[in-house]
Amino acid sequence: MLTDDIQQAMYAAMKAHQSEEVSALRLALSALKTAAIEARHDLSDDEAVAVLQREARKHQESEQVFREAGRGARADQEAFALRILGRFLPAAIEPGELAQLVDDAIAATGAGTGTPPGERSGLGHRSGDHTQAPDLEGDGGAGGHHRSTPWVLGEDPPDLRQVGH
């Protein structure tokens, strides 16, 4: 589990006397334990990743604020903590790679071709297959009402038992 991996990394950092790394890992473990208590169960790896991503975002925002305030040393600490957390997070996808994945998905589905979605799936209108709306007025469809639904939302529905009588 991810939490166990972070715990082991913290023990290794303690043995190597890397106090900044120990501090960053302790903060991450604290956030994970708090989330587990709130969830009332041990966190799955996906849940743990979500917690770590939230913590990473906090460190990133803090780094930016400290840099803007001219507190470079504190900003460097936040950047270091962010790098430590990054070791346990899935690799971020590059914008170019994301754009390629989107293009591939669009090409695979036929989206963006100008063809209506129903026709791409083979479920759309085919020539010669004309479906008529039901004749609710009983006048053979000459009543002037051409609705695709039997009534309009907000109106009282017709009494379907008397249609055609």
Describe the protein.
- With 165 residues, the chain is mainly α.
- It has a domain of 87 residues: Uncharacterised protein YqeY/AIM41, N-terminal domain (Hypothetical Protein Yqey, Chain: A, domain1, Orthogonal Bundle), CATH 1.10.1510.
- 57% of the residues lie in helices and 0% in strands.
- The protein contains 6 helices and no strands.
- Helix 1 packs antiparallel against helix 2, helix 2 packs across helix 4 and helix 3 runs antiparallel to helix 4.
- 10% of the residues are buried.
- The mean pLDDT is 78.
Concise structural overview:
With 165 residues, the protein is mostly helical.
Net shape: elongated
CATH superfamily of the domain at 2-88: Uncharacterised protein YqeY/AIM41, N-terminal domain
Give the H and E element order: HHHHHH
Per CATH, the architecture of the domain at 2-88 is Orthogonal Bundle
Number of helical stretches of at least 4 residues: 6
Q: Tally the beta strands.
A: 0
What is the helix content?
55-70%
The major sheet is characterized as:
none
Strand residue percentage: under 5%
CATH class of the domain at 2-88: Mainly Alpha
CATH-derived topology of the domain at 2-88: Hypothetical Protein Yqey, Chain: A, domain1
